[in-house]
Amino acid sequence: MRLWRILVCGIAGAQMALGAATEPFSLLGITPGKNGASLSVPMQIVIMLTLMTLLPAAVMSITPFLRIVIVLHFLRQALGTQSTPSNQVLLGLAMFLSLLVMQPVMADMYHQGWEPMENGQLTPEKALEQGTKPLHNFLAKFAREKDIRLFVEISHAPAPRTAADLDMKVLIPAYILSELKTGFQIGAVLFLPFLIIDLVIASVTLSIGMVQLPPVMISAPFKILLFVLVDGWNLVIGSLMRSFYS
């Protein structure tokens, strides 16, 4: 995107310097506006469609969706219910929980970036800079210092003085790595009580000689019963959501 802006500025500067006609602009989808060169509607549609193709990856990577879906996957594996709840149910639950957490962030991004640009108070570049600040603060809040240091060293970027100085190209992968670790930590804790049930059931079945019947088939009802009795969905989802508001 930065390369595109440089190219646009270069073409606009050459156009004004030579005093040429405006036809070359239309070839690149650039039309002269009141405040200078601006993108034409077809080019805006192309850029919008390109950004929409990247939207699923962004939703999965830079929102709480990553941590939530990992924990829900580990929970299903620990219960031993195979495909229940289905992938569609888990993804839908993770999506709506992510929207609940990100709603204040998206509202701030709209009010600080998009709304002033619509009113003509900010240029697109300034609106992009202002609009990404709430997302930057959200990512910096959950990214671990160790992961940030790793990607700062990899990118050979100067050491930031404060969190506000972090570049998004460093902050985003650091956030993803931090969320992966947090999700696996929560998943490991969820496995422990169900693992104990599996060990107890396996010991009992072996001691009485029931080697023909897999212990997993016997332990599955007990694990589901325990999960229901302690209101497991409420506990797991409540703990997950509180982890983003702490």
Chain-wise SSE layout:
Layout: H1 2-18, H2 23-27, E1 30-33, E2 36-39, H3 41-61, H4 65-79, H5 87-118, H6 124-131, H7 133-142, H8 145-155, H9 168-207, H10 215-229, H11 232-245
Quick structural gist:
Helices cover 76% and strands 3% of the residues.
Q: Helix content range of the residues, please?
A: over 70%
- Give the structural class: mainly alpha
Major beta-sheet overview: 2 strands, antiparallel
Q: Termini separation (Å)?
A: 35 Å
Shape: elongated
The stretches of 5 or more residues where confidence is low (pLDDT under 50) are 1-37
Architecture overview:
The chain has 246 residues and is mostly helical. Helix content is 76%, strand content 3%. Strands 1-2 form a two-stranded antiparallel sheet. The radius of gyration is 26 Å and the shape is elongated. Mean pLDDT is 77; it is low at 1-37.
